[in-house]
Design brief:
CATH topology: Pnp Oxidase, Chain A
Number of helices: 3
Oligomer: single chain
Structural class: mainly beta
Largest sheet: 7 strands, antiparallel
Helix content: 10-25%
Radius of gyration: 18 Å
Number of strands: 12
Number of domains: 1
CATH class: Mainly Beta
CATH superfamily: Electron Transport, Fmn-binding Protein, Chain A
């Protein structure tokens, strides 16, 4: 192996972020409620932990207001967005703040009381079971109390700083000419 490839230089944040941009991920709105207020943010750092008991995790920056709401209330909901929901994603990623974000669509609540997007692809209503602080973020693990299947569709993806849609490949066939995966 080439000596340059074996180098053990420390990876800096810029290099790490550039590498992470190549990972396509589903776009979600993470919501919570605390002291009568609704909180929400767009996130791609969501992952299944276990099926028994049903548990997932979200990684949230400690500076985000949603972080404190989850830490204090012990509840959150992961609302997975459909390919048509890029505007809603942008709204929850900082284009608008506070309660006004929730006026754009229809929301309800399930077992935990966290805001649930009625027409999300799927929503996972979770009760916090563990949190792990690491660097600038906290990993929140939530046991899924209830699942709501909303409107059918394809997931909204985020990769290389852009929204994307998926296109199915059947049995390794080449992609059709001119197919626009990034068109928004």
């Amino acid at each position: 192996m080439d000596k340059d490839l074996q180098s053990s230089q420390r990876v800096d944040a810029v290099q790490y972020k550039l590498g992470m941009r190549t990972l396509a991920a589903a776009v979600n709105i993470i919501t919570s409620t605390h002291s009568g207020h609704r909180y929400g943010m767009t996130a791609t750092a969501v992952c299944s932990v276990a099926a028994d008991p049903p548990t997932l995790l979200v990684c949230i920056n400690k500076a985000a207001t949603t972080h404190n709401a989850i830490a204090k209330s012990g509840v959150f909901c992961v609302n997975t967005l459909r390919a048509e929901d890029s505007e809603l994603s942008t709204t929850f990623s900082g284009a608008q703040s506070g309660e006004g974000r929730f006026k754009l669509r229809d929301w309800t609540h399930l077992t935990t009381g966290s805001p649930v997007l009625i027409d999300a692809l799927v929503s996972f209503d979770c009760r916090l079971v563990k949190k792990i602080a690491h660097g600038s973020h906290t990993i929140f693990m939530g046991q899924v109390e209830q699942v709501l299947f909303g409107k059918k569709g394809k997931p909204l993806l985020y990769v290389d700083g852009q929204y994307a849609k998926i296109a199915a490949l059947s049995h390794g066939e080449p992609l059709p000419e001119g197919l626009d995966y990034w068109g928004y």
